[in-house]
Design a protein that fits this description.
With 276 residues, the chain is of the alpha+beta class. The protein contains 8 helices and 12 strands. Helices cover 34% and strands 32% of the residues.
């Protein structure tokens, strides 16, 4: 297998675009990260790589922010990819990708790198084409503003910690400010108080991704997240053909909520973290 690396997502995306779009829903996050990358960002700590056989891409490996993102449809080259990753200087806290490929890749990576890598979260990717008729909770949806930034960052930090990742406050602040400026960050308001947030992120040409769904503990089990995700999905479908989202399979409540809204399961994935 021939491995080739690239300096920036702008250089990399045209090379892997057709490969990624063969499984658009599975790769929606990766497509969005690369497609929406900004030329003036710092990519010095990122990693963009293809693994090819006879000039045909079989594996893509990306570090764009935090984890290694694995993209493949073939388990024959996972050992070679793991050995290559272990041979180069890449700093990564974890690995994410579709199952069963990511599980096999991590097995090989543990052997090759001698790192202690454990399963953090079993996930599922859902797709929605039409929002079901549901009962909404009290309140209404509105766009987040810069006046909401303090509470948004507090919730964002809690969200990241729940995923087992050390929060990078400055990076988080830049991202959430961009969300506000681009009108992709939404809040559910009840009695003039923000009670839930989510954002539209990492969009492909045809679809939008719902992410960063967070409700503080004292506001949970009131239907706020269901209402906000449904309204934001409805809003997104005015422009896009479909919406996607990731769920934690260890949380049956959230999975049932999204299916109630109209989201259908597409593929399972997993997040692994490197033990320090």
């Amino acid at each position: 297998m021939n491995f080739k690396t690239y300096e920036t997502p702008m250089e990399y995306y045209p090379i892997v675009k057709d490969f990624l779009y063969r499984n658009e829903i599975t790769n929606v996050l990766t497509i969005g990260l690369l497609r929406n990358a900004k030329a003036d960002d710092d990519y010095s700590k990122c990693f963009y790589c293809t693994g090819s056989v006879n000039d045909e891409i079989k594996i893509a490996l990306i570090v764009h922010g935090l984890h290694i993102i694995l993209v493949t449809e073939d388990d024959h080259y996972l050992k070679s990819a793991a050995e290559y990753v272990s041979s180069v200087d890449i700093d990564f806290p974890g690995v994410i990708g579709p199952r069963p490929f990511v599980d096999l890749f991590v097995e090989h990576l543990v052997c090759a790198s001698k790192k202690d890598i454990t399963l953090r979260m079993s996930q599922r990717i859902y797709k929605l084409d039409e929002v079901n008729d549901i009962q909404y909770s009290n309140g209404y949806m509105r766009l987040a503003t810069h006046e909401d930034l303090e509470i948004v960052l507090e919730w964002n930090e809690d969200f990241v910690v729940c995923e087992g990742i050390t929060a990078n406050y400055e990076r988080m602040k830049i991202k959430r400010q961009q969300d506000i400026d681009e009108e992709t960050l939404f809040l559910w308001i009840d009695n003039d108080v923000p009670v839930t947030m989510t954002n539209l992120s990492k969009r492909t040409s045809e679809g939008a991704h719902i992410g960063l769904v967070y409700t503080p503990k004292d506001q949970r089990r009131k239907g706020y997240a269901t209402s906000l995700v449904a309204k934001v999905s409805e809003h997104a479908l005015q422009k896009y053909s479909y919406c996607t989202l990731y769920t934690d399979l260890g949380n049956p409540v959230s999975n049932s909520i999204y299916m109630k809204i109209g989201y259908n399961p597409i593929v399972d994935s997993a997040m692994y973290l490197v033990k320090k």
